[in-house]
Amino acid sequence: MAIRKPPGGGHTPFDPAVADKLLELLSTDNEFRDLFEKDPEAAVRKVGHEIPEGAAMACMSTVQIAPKEEIAQARAMIKDFLTSAAAYNNPHCFEAGRIVSTLEKK
Question: Which residues contact 82 (CB under 8 A, 6 or more apart)?
Fold first, then answer.
């Protein structure tokens, strides 16, 4: 019998205040956006989200991070997603041109 992981692979959803801080910085701060692109784990820790030991944040990586405006426009939708148990199941949450279309499928 296969063992199934819980939604989010056992990761803890974002606290709403931490999600707000992450989204604010991703939609306004070029230095933070650079950090997020290079090291999503460090960026997520910097805003105050606890990452369990040994957990990878590959779900936060992007080929091309969405523009500030795209993140700002989809902010409420992204926040709802990040604070849900499914937050780590979708690798396209911050991908340019894919935020809304991907999250609308959830």
Answer: 13, 14, 19, 22, 23, 93
